Amino acid sequence: MDLVAELNELLAEPLHAVREREATAFDHRAGSPGDQLVLFGAGGLGQRTVRKLRDAGVEPVAFSDNNESRWGTVVDGVPVLSPQEAASKFGSSAAFVVTIWGAGGPHRLEQTMGQLKGLGCATVVPFAWLAWRYSDQMLPYYGIDLPSHIIEQADDVRRAFALLSDDRSRSEYVAQVRWRLTGDPGCLDHPVDEPQYLSSVAPLEVTDRILDCGAYDGDTLRSWLETKGEFARYIGLEPDPDSRNRLEAVVAGLPAELAGRVTVLPYAVASEEGTAVFSAWGTGASSLGTVGGQGGGMTVECRQIDQLVATLGDPRPSLLKMDIEGAELDALHGAAGLIRGDGPILAICVYHRQSDLWKIPLFVAELRGDYAFYLRPHNEEGWDLVCYGVPASRAA
What we know:
Blueprint lengths: L2 H9 L3 H16 L6 E4 L3 H12 L6 E3 L9 E2 L2 E4 L1 H8 L4 E4 L10 H10 L4 E4 H7 L1 H4 L9 H5 L1 H8 L5 H16 L26 E5 L5 H9 L5 E5 L3 H12 L3 H4 L2 E4 L2 E2 L4 E6 L7 E2 L9 E6 L1 H8 L6 E4 L5 H6 L2 H7 L2 E5 L6 H12 L3 E7 L7 E7 L5
């Protein structure tokens, strides 16, 4: 089956059937064991899941984890068992939900499901199905949201697919839609062996001027220096104080002439100028807004990219990179003038929200019609998916 036909088949599921499936998938798989839940993975996602389940009036019976240092401990009031002990106690009576899903590791869902089934666990369920079941409490969560939203926007999903410029991107796009519809990331390919934001599909040069939105601790700056050696100008925007301090330490270690081309600013970016609440974790997950009532509780200044670029003067950015935890589409509205007038190469994350996969390329294409779009995954299971936009003037 060709990719167009595959995409159309995915989108042909009737909306009423999708809504029924998302509401019942967990219960159909878990059955009565769904009354007892073991969360496999006591890290960040597992702890978040406990909080959200309690909001829904549900209490898991246990965590299980492959990390031996957690065995015998209690996390958020829930005991942590070894996989063997959890399987022995609850393998036939509880539903095991895999709550291991995060950037930066090699883990894949199929590995843990195989491990648990090998230990005799009768019911093993992906996290997405549990999130659909308790969607009011748990969703959206990065690229996981209700599948019905995709069917509701099927025309836009098709239009964005038509913008993609190579078979690798089209194949990745269809797999990403399949994952969002099924909740099973097993259809996703492994990441490309290239630095994130610096894929070979984007013909970047040492003469480029980089506007790095979500500069974090200097990870993109370091990657650029390792692959390109130098740049004409680098402007790093990072509102998280701890991350910004680490970024500035990287800059301080550069040769004086190169460091002189760097500007580090404490701003978030948005469609409008102003201030906003910011959850400062000192990690890559720091973001605008609050997360579950938690966060750094600080106020940050938001800048509109078009206004910011005007105040910084020439030379204007020729590469616009964004990794800003779901605020990408809003920030792109504030960069409309730069994109329309200058046509910078774009490296924009599209994994923080389900619909960013299609809404971001569609928005850019409306601003300027000569962009070629590419999708490249830079991590496992949907993480660090980047949409690259290359204007005709920069095509290889």
